[in-house]
Amino acid sequence: MFNQFRNKFSLSDEKWIEYTNLFNRIEVPAKTTLLEEGEISKKLFIIEKGCIRVWFNNNGKDLTTQFFFENQSVASIESFMKKMPSPVVVETIESSVLWWIHKNDLDKILEEIKEIPELRDRLINMLFERTFDYMKYFVSFIKDSPTQRYLNLIEERPQIIQRVPQHYIASYLGVTTVHLSRIKSKLLNKK
Fold first, then answer.
1. Which residues of 117-135 are buried (b: 16+ CB within 10 A; e: fewer)?
2. Whose CB among 44, 65, 97, 104 lies 3.0–4.6 Å from 48's, allowing a Cys bridge?
């Protein structure tokens, strides 16, 4: 799993082995909850195989905010970094192979590499890609129609369309499954 990242970090072999040994590999079935809303996040996950969604409950309505796939990291970043209750649920969509690291171990790595700007910046960028995704998602909800959000999804993240069940996509777009079906039908009729 970690060999593909090896050339991105200039560490001694000894340090590389020490750091990668802090990760634990797990295999979990679809619909496994990795973090409950309100729980404090103590694990960061890297996906070797599978798909994860992040969602929250809004008055009994399930609202999906993000999807993650192979080679991406996922946690409730707000909870993980600030030790506050998670505002979201982290759940697998597919059977998944994951690697996780405990916050204390990641903090140790960050403390050790903070003096190496290139390593620190790469790791921090990898961890905070999600923040950029959140901003794009937020702005899209303000300025784009559900149809435009769906078209953007097809264009920018086709793996979501290919791998994620329709009811989760509808939740992500902020529409009902019936409305998503209408959007898809309307787009097909335009072709």
1. eebeebbeeebeebeebee
2. 97
